[in-house]
Design brief:
Distance between the termini: 55 Å
Number of strands: 0
Shape: flat
Strand content: under 5%
Number of helices: 3
Radius of gyration: 31 Å
Largest sheet: none
Structural class: mainly alpha
Helix content: 55-70%
Order of helices and strands: HHH
Length: 87
């Protein structure tokens, strides 16, 4: 191949991506509103947060049962896979 063509090809490949990056995006970004940011509550506030309430105790009581059920399902699934261990 002619060395001039090689240089021209390399130059075209080097300039092409720079032109693509310089173009404005086709989709305009939408400005965010302050209303959406103000309505977000990160931490619970006031009487709505009761860590030792009866409702929380019910949920906490169900967690060990759920965890044990999940462990049993995962164990059964592992046995069905028949993975060769120690081959």
């Amino acid at each position: 191949m002619n060395p001039v063509l090689k240089v021209a090809a390399c130059f075209a490949l080097a300039i092409g991506p720079a032109d693509a990056l310089a173009e404005q995006p086709a989709v305009a970004s939408q400005p965010t509103t302050l209303e959406a940011a103000e309505s977000v509550h990160v931490q619970p506030r006031g009487p709505g947060f009761a860590p030792n309430s009866a409702q929380d105790d019910v949920v906490q009581g169900k967690l060990p049962i759920f965890n044990e059920t999940q462990r049993a399902r995962e164990s059964a699934f592992d046995r069905k896979l028949r993975i060769c261990r120690g081959c």
